[in-house]
Fold this protein.
Amino acid sequence: MKPLRLSLCAALAVFAITAAAQQPTAPQPQPDDPLARVLFPPELVMQHQQDIALRAEQRAVITKAIQDFQTKVVDLQWRMQDQAQRLAALLEKATVEQAAALAQVDEVLGVEREVKRAHITLLIQIKNTLSAEQRRGRRRRVQTCGSTDIAPSMT
């Protein structure tokens, strides 16, 4: 029973990390996060769309990028679930075949990498959609308010 508990805990840890990585939003970034100074999460752009004078065509582009991201992440969630279950099955054995388990960990991490890549792609698309003036204006408002919620931490 103890190996089963251990494998379930390991699988849950993988799921928790993956779930956090799959969210289009994330907790407050670290103050020294270099991405926080240059990227804008969708919820921040939505909250300040009037402040930055977001145009209808920009909103449409950002909405499409978010929809594409969500579609891709749903597929990746299914793949992650499958890969994590395979890992759990390997870890449930009384004696774990280390090479096989580590190969399966690589599969899980590969899907996680795809999730993170999709997330950073979304953030880049949003940044590229905003004008230089909109990016500067948003950054200036954030600096005067002392907020650091410009972009999610990718670590």
User: Anything to note?
Assistant: Residues 56-92 form the longest helix (37 residues). Confidence is low (pLDDT under 50) at residues 4-12, 146-155. The radius of gyration is 19 Å. The CA atoms of residues 61 and 129 lie 7 Å apart.
